[in-house]
Amino acid sequence: MNAALFVDAQERHGIDLVGPTRGDRQWQAQAGVGFATRDFAIDFARRRATCPGGKDSHSWTPTLVHGTTPVIKIKFAVRDCRDCSLRPHCTRSKSARRAITIRPEAQHKALRVRREREKTSDFAAEYARRAGVEGTIAQGVRSARLRRTPYFGHAKTHLAHLMKAAAMNLVRLLRWLADEPKARTRNSSFAQLHSLAA
C-alpha cells in the first residue's frame, strides 16, 4: 500500500489500514547488501540525513514526483562520497554522489513502522483475516451485485444490503451442510500465461 494511504486513513478517519507496503526497489534493499534508504538516519527537524559512514547530507529538496506525489530528495556532497571506503556498498556510480528519496515525515515514519510490523506473526494473522473479508466482498459483488442497487435512499439500500448478506450466509450454510469443498483460489489470466511461458 501507499504510505499516503496509511497516514490519510489514520488522520482523517482514525482507521488503522492493514496491508502490505510497497517494497523498497533500490538494488541495495533488493540484494540485501549495501546501504538502502532505511540505513540512513533522517533528522526532519534539522532537514538533514546522515549516511552510515557518518557524513551529513549536502542538500534537502522537497519536490513532486509526476507532479502529484510529494517527496524529499536528499543528496550528499561529492567530496564525501568520492573517497569513502563504504562507497561500493552505497552506490554503483563511479563519479556521482549518493542521493536518496524519501516521503514527507508522517509518511516516512508510517512506512517504517508498517514495514517492521509486516515481519511479525501478529501481522500475518491479521492480514489472513483481511483476506477472508475481501473474499466475502468479492463473493457479494459477483453473486449479489453489491455495488449496484435498484433502490433510492440510504434506508432502502441498507435494507437491500442486509438481505443480500443474509442470503449469502444461507448459501454458505447450505454448502457447508452439503460438505461441498471450498473453491481453490483462481489464477489470473496473466499468471496462467506466465506459468505456461515458464
Automatic annotation (TrEMBL):
InterPro entries assigned to the protein according to its UniProt record, in alphabetical order: Tnp_DDE_dom
Transposase DDE domain: residues covered: 50-174
Domain of life where this protein originates: Bacteria
Record protein name field: IS1182 family transposase ISMtsp10
Native source organism of the sequence: Methylorubrum aminovorans
